[in-house]
Amino acid sequence: MDPILLVLATLDGIAYAALVFLVAVGLTLIFGVMRILNVAHGAFYAIGGYAAASLVLSISDADFSPWLSFPALLVAAMGVGAALGLVIERFLLRHIYAKEEVLQLLVTFAAFMILEDVQRLVWGVQPYSATDPVRLLGTVDVMGIPYNAYQIILLPVIAVMVLLGLRWFLRRTLSGKVITAVTEDRETAIAMGIDARKVFTVTFVIGAVLAALGGALASPTTAIQLGLGAEMIVLSFAVVATAGLGQVEGAALAALLIGLGRSFAVYLVPELDVLVPYMIMVLVLLFRPQGLFAVAEKRRI
Amino acid sequence: MSVTLLEASSLHISFGGVTAADGIDLEVFSGERLAIIGPNGAGKTTFLNICTGYLTPSAGSVRFGGRDITAMAPRAITRMGIARAFQSPQLFHEQCVIDNLLLAAAARERAWNPFRPLRERPEHDEMLALLELFGLADHAASMVNELPEGTRKLVDIAVALALQPQLLLMDEPTSGVSSLEKFRIMDLLVKALAEQGVTSVFVEHDMEMVERYADRVAVWNSGRIQSVGAPDQVLADPSVMRDVIGV
User: Fold this and answer.
1) I need a surface site. Which of A44, A57, B103, B155 has the fewest CB within 10 A?
2) Mind telling me how many Å the CA of B112 is from chain A's nearest CA?
3) Domain B33-48+75-245: which topology?
4) Is A244 a domain residue?
């Protein structure tokens, strides 16, 4: 393989992995704490993307400084994630925590379908893209080939910051430790008087904001259109399953593995690019059914 | 010893044909240490589960400090001032000892802070003092899953006390502790309870413990309270000796 192609494939893979990680880490965090596999997560990603693209476009329509598009991405993600996360947790999930897992899965799937129609109603069927942020950051030369700084610098930096921030939050801060405690043993947490319900709300909102952030950051580089959410949720399931459910650092490595796998496939065997992430997942699960980084669940008596 | 802190009246509950409580009336007085003894499977732990909201009796009620807590959720009961130490310690095994205590203290204070480290909680010194009381200060930074069972049971009791309860329910506090250690540990525990003014109920199989540490003892047999009174009187009763202790 041409060394330049090798480098390009690696950079593509890293940029893609950064986005996938943001979505997958929220999914795995929610699963770890609430034991719910949240299919609606894909919709948070898509709506985050739509909202960010709309906001960035209206900023450029209004002739404001295009640099405002960066905070706009963040504002869109936080707004969408917080609003949708709160509403869905409060009015939907709260009623089904004690129910069977199959029902929980179906309810979040229903929420996904409803939100999919909401996207159709609000944004219609035409694709949205707002490329200001990519244009503003310009390009960097990689072995003589210009490459988007947005994709090879900004996205990975944000992903790493999110990873380090989450690690610090979960391992050091009071709220993070409480979330970790509920993840480890909900019964014990309740016996100690910890408000598990509040922990659920906060965790779900954090997860939703991360998914929306993934969508918002993707909007300058891809056209946001219908079906994007479904594609992303399936891919992040693959990442989460490969890493092991509930694994934050694992999700980062699995996202990188799958991101790189996919981008190398694009350069080497383009017919297989969609398939490769799932092939990686199946291979991993054949040998380690609990995922790469999860310890097999200990039996509690 | 006359103010009633907890009062169970006519509790009934059964599991698949086994009647664990068949009209239980039991009072716990403020400031006392009440032991509950009885054959295995008699329903002693079921009683603790009812008092902490994990089980709802099919009939009867539990009142705590005058309020009916029969159908209340476990967390609400914890907040009212009933804490519990379990037969097999319920702790966060992948966190260190001091963090377990700090989490309990933070829950007690309803604290919530996404930016400040847990270790900087104002209760830190208070929790260290609590560990000190049990001779566990050296283990503050140890991971729970690295500790021997007996030590974990002590940590579990310390966590329960971190909640500053009025009433502490314990399920065989010294089982799994070596017989050399158990008196030392119970002495420490009794001292801690007295210092904090905590009333306690403990389920116990070890009659030596009951004789030495209980103010009163209740005999739970076949879903009923067979007798209740001072340990020297109850344990001297030949029918109790026969039914419960098996001699």
Assistant:
1) A57
2) 6
3) Rossmann fold (3.40.50)
4) yes
